[in-house]
């Protein structure tokens, strides 16, 4: 069989196996993501597998660069990728995407045994504070745009035609009220 036929058969198999599985995502017909672990699990991670043109005779591209994996240290990511590459070498020449996802699921605890969540916001702020010279806070304050509450936004949307334009005659009531006031004032004067 040719590589394309193998890929088509594996694609059909993956779609039928993972149908309804929230952890599986087909990014394209040759690229897939699988979340190992449950949402909210600090040891959960995401694997992305992309097929090359000659897959399965050549190894797929395995990546852990998804934003979901930001709390995992690069050393742990490299360790997981190395273990997955070993599994790729064993399965080279056969359809292996399902096998790799299942291998990762079965060995999740082993893969993540050295995992200590990295708080990316702290590391970024530390980098910023190290790179920028310490200066006195500037006296200029940026003007913040006024924030509207949900009720204010809803009221504004109800007044407009959802294009930001007021409907024709929106202020006629005010004109009529002013005219009535003038009529009352002039009638009392006469």
TrEMBL record:
Disordered: annotated span: 131-163
Stretches that traverse the bilayer: none
Domain RWD: from-to ranges: 9-111
Short name of one Pfam family: RWD
Cross-referenced InterPro entries: RWD_dom, RWDD4, UBQ-conjugating_enzyme/RWD
SUPFAM superfamilies according to UniProt: UBC-like
Top-level taxon of origin: Eukaryota
Descriptive protein name: RWD domain-containing protein 4 isoform X1
């Amino acid at each position: 069989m040719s590589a394309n036929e193998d890929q088509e058969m594996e694609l059909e198999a993956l779609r039928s196996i993972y149908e309804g599985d929230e952890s599986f995502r087909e990014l394209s017909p040759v690229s897939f993501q699988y979340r190992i672990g449950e949402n909210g699990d600090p040891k959960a991670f995401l694997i992305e597998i992309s097929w090359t043109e000659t897959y399965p005779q050549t190894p797929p591209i395995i990546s852990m660069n998804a934003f979901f994996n930001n709390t995992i240290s690069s050393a742990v990511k490299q360790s997981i990728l190395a273990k997955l590459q070993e599994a790729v070498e064993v399965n080279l020449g056969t359809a292996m995407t399902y096998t790799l996802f299942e291998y990762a699921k079965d060995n999740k605890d082993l893969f993540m045994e050295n995992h200590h969540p990295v708080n990316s916001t702290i590391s970024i702020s530390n980098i910023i504070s190290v790179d920028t010279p310490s200066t006195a806070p500037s006296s200029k304050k940026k003007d913040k745009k006024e924030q509207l509450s949900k009720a204010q936004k809803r009221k504004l949307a109800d007044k407009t035609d959802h294009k930001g334009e007021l409907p024709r005659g929106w202020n006629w009531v005010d004109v009529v009220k002013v005219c009535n006031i003038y009529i009352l004032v002039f009638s009392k004067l006469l």
